[in-house]
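PROTEIN DESIGN WORKSHEET
SECTION A - STRUCTURE
LENGTH: 125
TOKENS:
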């Protein structure tokens, strides 16, 4: 049995109809879902750009890894080449994804970290 038993027919002019169709296309919702959302007083939001979920996953991954490296750096006062390379690689992946998603410019990594202690390949935190 249908939950929605009432049909509503109404008319739109060309401008209103094009706007209505565009709302569905921008949100990824069906025409029915757009109308129900508007009737319910919801704000109709455009759908997230393609690749947005991937970007959020990359940011989450980078935040977790950065936190782990920061804990090591705080306890030892040094981080090694591998950890620095991991951070830079994660940052570059996020910037590339952001560039693809919203047209960010990728900054250059000109400033090398300072070496700490006498051990080659360790950096001050």
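SECTION B - SEQUENCE
RESIDUE ASSIGNMENT:
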């Amino acid at each position: 049995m249908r939950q929605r038993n009432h049909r509503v027919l109404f008319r739109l002019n060309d401008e209103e109809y094009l706007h209505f169709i565009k709302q569905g296309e921008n949100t990824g919702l069906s025409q029915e879902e757009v109308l129900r959302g508007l009737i319910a007083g919801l704000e109709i939001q455009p759908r997230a750009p393609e690749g947005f979920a991937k970007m959020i996953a990359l940011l989450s991954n980078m935040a977790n890894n950065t936190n782990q490296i920061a804990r090591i750096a705080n306890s030892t006062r040094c981080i090694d080449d591998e950890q620095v390379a991991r951070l830079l690689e994660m940052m570059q992946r996020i910037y590339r994804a952001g560039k693809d998603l919203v047209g960010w410019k990728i900054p250059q990594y000109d400033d090398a970290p300072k070496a700490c202690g006498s051990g080659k390949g360790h950096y001050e935190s």
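SECTION C - NOTES
The first strand starts at residue 78 and ends at 80.
The two ends are 65 Å apart (CA to CA).
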